[in-house]
Amino acid sequence: IASSGGLYGRISIDTLGSVHPESRNPTLAKILEIMRIAENRFSGIPTIRHEFKALGLPDPEFESRRGEFVVTFRNGLGLNLEKDVATKLATGRKNVTQEEFLAFCAVPRSREEIRAFTGLAKNYASTKFIRPLLKEGKLRLTIPETPKCREQKFVRSDET
């Protein structure tokens, strides 16, 4: 995740989450907090770190690059598998393994994303991957009450 504008004021990567940062526009920050649209309590980074640790995931990586603040979240998969998935996503290769498919579905994926990743027609991707993995409990629906919903996505089950 990249946020243009970079870190503001005297805060540094090392002090993130431990000191109260300065606001670029404190009046706007206060208005957004009163309206319950945002908070201005500098609790976001400690919460992110705590949740990642609780889930056994690698620590998020924070960077300050020229003019932007970047956070990288890793999902804990082996690096080789991540590279294989990224390569197949970029090249559209069709020989995707079940393990790679489940790695791809570590985050919710739409039917179109699955089709693009596998390089298969929508119905064949469903026959080869989605239905069998749903039946085995390795994949789950994000909207289980309406399986055929247009916004339906598929995500790897926590049990895998």
Structure description:
The protein has 6 helices and 6 strands; from the N terminus they run βααββααβααββ. The mean pLDDT is 81. The protein is α+β, with helices and mostly antiparallel strands. The chain is elongated, with a radius of gyration of 20 Å. The protein has helices at residues 26-34, 44-54, 79-91, 98-104, 111-118, 122-136; strands at residues 2-4, 61-65, 68-72, 109-110, 139-141, 153-156. Helix 3 (79-91) packs across helix 4. The strands form 2 sheets. The protein has a 3-stranded antiparallel β-sheet with strand order 1-3-2, with no helix packed on it.
Ordered list of secondary-structure elements with their pairings:
Blueprint: E1 2-4, H1 26-34, H2 44-54, E2 61-65, E3 68-72, H3 79-91, H4 98-104, E4 109-110, H5 111-118, H6 122-136, E5 139-141, E6 153-156
Antiparallel strand pairs: 1-3, 2-3, 4-6, 5-6
